Automatic annotation (TrEMBL):
MF (Gene Ontology): tRNA N(6)-L-threonylcarbamoyladenine synthase activity
NCBIfam families in the record: T6A_YeaZ
Coiled coil: none
Record EC number: 2.3.1.234
One family name in Pfam for this protein: TsaD
Name this polypeptide is given: tRNA (Adenosine(37)-N6)-threonylcarbamoyltransferase complex dimerization subunit type 1 TsaB
Keyword Acyltransferase: yes
Signal peptide bounds: none
Domain spans labelled Gcp-like: 36-147
Keyword list, A-Z: Acyltransferase, Transferase
Family matches, as Gene3D superfamilies: 3.30.420.40
Classification via PANTHER family: TRNA N6-ADENOSINE THREONYLCARBAMOYLTRANSFERASE, TRNA THREONYLCARBAMOYLADENOSINE BIOSYNTHESIS PROTEIN TSAB
Length: 225
């Protein structure tokens, strides 16, 4: 089963094609460009490129997996709108996975790990994973010092993700080089059981964790003469 994976929850704009079978998940093609200001311009060409790499058409897709975030409002919705629109047009199911799971799950290797991505405003989106890669805390958004304190309470000594790199001095944890951004193969694996079972598609609901900066006015402002 040929599956498209998209994620735009971090500065890394990602599209990948994976083959999902009873034996596991195999990567067929992958594009990733790190640019926090060009999610809308980059994702669609990346999707076209990974399809072209394997000589496939959109109609050959069986399902779409999308990273749900958490992530900044504008960038995150690019991937989710793309995934939802393609799923609707092609008549195939869409499945969502927490984007932090695509960082923390593959990083866990017998010990708990903190996965953190940059949330701007001097904060991080974070979650903690046990040694088997299961999420045991989060996702949440906090100052790095708060995330570090929560992680230490769970016996974490290692961190991954671009947020961990950015705030390594504050976290005070050993930071692994990779994965820095959500791994599309990990996202597909986490949705693999649903894909193989042909489970009904899911609404791709974003994990924003906080309100957008721009909000609608709730009342008219008085006009002075």
């Amino acid at each position: 089963m040929l599956v498209l994976v998209v994620d735009s929850s971090t500065p890394a704009v990602t599209a990948a094609l994976v083959e999902v079978s009873a034996d596991g998940v195999a990567l067929r093609s992958h594009r990733c460009t790190v640019d926090a200001r060009a999610h809308g311009e980059l994702l669609a060409p990346e999707v076209d490129a990974v399809l072209a790499d394997v000589g496939a058409r959109p109609a050959d897709l069986t399902a779409i997996v999308a990273g749900l975030g958490p992530g900044p409002f504008t960038g995150l919705r690019v991937g989710l709108v793309t995934g939802a629109t393609m799923g609707q047009v092609l008549g195939i199911p869409t499945y969502g996975v927490c984007s932090l799971d695509g960082i923390g799950h593959p990083a866990a290797a017998g010990e708990p790990v903190l996965a953190a991505s940059d949330a701007r405003r001097r904060e991080v989106y974070w979650a903690v994973y046990d040694g088997a890669g299961q999420r045991i805390a989060g996702p949440e958004v906090d100052a790095p010092a708060v995330a570090a304190e929560r992680a230490r309470d769970l016996a974490v000594t290692v961190a991954v993700g671009d947020g961990a790199h950015r705030y390594a001095d504050v976290l005070g944890l050993s930071v692994r080089a990779e994965p820095r951004y959500p791994d599309p193969v990990a996202l597909a694996r986490l949705a693999g059981e649903r894909i193989r079972a042909g489970a009904p598609g899911e609404r791709l609901t974003p994990l924003y964790l906080r309100r957008p900066d721009a909000v609608a006015a709730t009342a008219r402002k008085p006009v002075l003469p």
